[in-house]
Amino acid sequence: MKKERVLITGAAGFLGSHLCDRFIKEGYHVIGMDNLITGDLRNIEHLFHLKEFEFYNHDVSTFVHVPGEIKYILHFASPASPIDYLKIPIQTLKVGSLGTHNLLGLAMAKKARILVASTSEVYGDPTVHPQTEDYWGNVNPVGPRGVYDEAKRFQEAITMAYHTYHGLETRIIRIFNTYGPRMRLNDGRVLPAFMGQALRGEDLTVFGDGSQTRSFCYVDDLVEGIYRLLLSDCADPVNIGNPSEITIAQFAEEIIKLTGTDQKVIYHPLPTDDPKQRQPNITKAQEILGWEPKVERAEGLKITWDYFKALPKERLYEDSHHREFKG
Ligand code: UDP
């Protein structure tokens, strides 16, 4: 029987690559697309020999053409760490806005259902805690995170407009901090930063006084939530994340304990507009999708640490490998 075809953008990234694995496991033909600015082919190398996988090296901010039928589109292409937005701000804006527009057009042409990856960053530095989907957010449009936050807010707006105006089948997921194997070691995010530092024998850099909070979700739980949301009939945004909240200072202590290294914590200045607290309210996901996270932080961190520990030593010293890009 002919397999149903799914297009996954950002396929060589952390989340995109796990989605490729999941959809192949579910029996789909997966078309991966990525321009490899922040993505890494090593994340999907194991799929290239499969006949049910194909890959396009393409920037979705320019016109997207894919021959043949497509049942689902999952738009996960975007730089996703504060360091990346600072390095490639225009590209970040374009992939969330122009890229989303192109993929909505493709979804129309293919009569496909499209799920777009939004983010807890649409809530900015939240004044409502924990964050529910009906909170509109507290975002600085011209701060360093504005290029990501506003692109994602535009993405939600245009996706909803295609749904209401054209009747397109759309899904919007708001993703909270997620971690697991295949995160880029040097993308500046807190978990790979701490684990990379532990592996290189460096001190752990806590920004600010470490009292800011985050809630970390293991990647397999997130992928399950994405899968369920895609198959649901909910066009409104849904939070997916793990409500277990800790301070970054506590997180550093957990990593030191887990890695068994005797690294110290050193304090660096807090980046501009760094949200003070973040925790998803997941009532909606529980009610609509019957979803909640299953993997405890201790378990997920152990799997992730084992992944980083097994990497060849030279990867610990790789700079983030952005290609030159003028955007
Ligand atoms: N952070 C830190 N040390 C680092 C990297 C990040 O203390 O080496 C802090 C950062 O200031 C933020 C939190 O960890 O408060 C999470 O940062 P990340 O970049 O992972 O994600 P986001 O801020 O987008 O949630």
Which topology of the domain at 5-182 and 217-242 and 279-295 does CATH recognise?
A: Rossmann fold
Shape: globular
| Percent in strands | 15-25%
Helix proportion range? 25-40%
Largest sheet: 7 strands, parallel
Structural class: alpha/beta
C-alpha Rg (nearest Å): 19 Å
- Note the gap between the termini: 42 Å
Task: Give the full name of the CATH homologous superfamily of the domain at 5-182 and 217-242 and 279-295.
Answer: NAD(P)-binding Rossmann-like Domain
Ligands present: uridine-5'-diphosphate
In order across it, which strands form the biggest sheet? 3-2-1-4-5-6-11
How many helices?
9
- How would you describe the oligomerization state of the chains in this entry? single chain
Instruction: Name the CATH class of the domain at 5-182 and 217-242 and 279-295.
Output: Alpha Beta
Topology, number of strands: 13
The residue ranges in which pLDDT falls below 50 over 5 or more consecutive positions are none
Mean pLDDT: 95
Q: From the coordinates shown, what is the CATH architecture of the domain at 5-182 and 217-242 and 279-295?
A: 3-Layer(aba) Sandwich
- Helix-strand string: EHEEEHHEHEEHEEEHEEHEHH
Task: Give a summary of the structure in a few sentences.
The chain has 327 residues and is an alpha/beta fold. It has helices at residues 14-25, 82-87, 89-110, 146-166, 190-200, 219-231, 248-259, 283-289, 297-309; strands spanning 5-9, 29-34, 53-57, 72-75, 113-119, 170-175, 178-179, 204-207, 213-215, 217-218, 238-240, 245-247, 265-268.
